[in-house]
Amino acid sequence: MKTHNWKDIKNRRMTPEQIARADSWVEEQTVAIRLSELREEEGVTQQELARRVEVAQGHVSRVERGNPHIDTVRRYLEALGYELQCVAVKKDKRVTISL
User: Fold this and answer.
1) Which residues are CB-contacts of 39 (< 8 A; sequence separation ≥ 6)?
2) pTM over 0.90
3) CB of 88 within 8 A of CB of 94?
4) Shortest CA distance to 49 belongs to which of 18, 15, 80?
5) Radius of gyration of the chain (CA)
6) What is the C-alpha to C-alpha distance for residues 34 and 16, in angstroms, rounded to an integer?
7) Which of 7, 55, 93, 95 is the most buried (most CB within 10 A)?
8) Could you count the other beta carbons within 10 Å of the beta carbon of residue 7?
9) What is the dihedral of CA 22, 70, 75, 98, to 10 degrees?
10) Phi and psi dihedrals of 64, rounded to 5?
11) 85 contacts 98 by C-beta, under 8 angstroms
12) Cβ-contact 85, 99 below 8 angstroms
């Protein structure tokens, strides 16, 4: 099976707006996949995580499928024992902010 480079795919017949939307979608999906992986690495089911966060299991499922609100991500990670931090970068300066 042949693999493809994302940059080659997105630059074929796509407007800059379409490329930006595609990049945004890929970024959202990457976050969702990583959240799911963290939960699974911790050995926690969606049902258990939902109980810890005090939401329905379906809500956890939707978070893991993409584009959750930042507060939801924070609560999700806290329920797994993590702290959400934001890193702002400007040239050679990095600022970490706990959320």
Assistant:
1) 46, 49, 64, 76, 80
2) no
3) yes
4) 80
5) 17
6) 27
7) 55
8) 8
9) 120
10) -75, -10
11) yes
12) yes
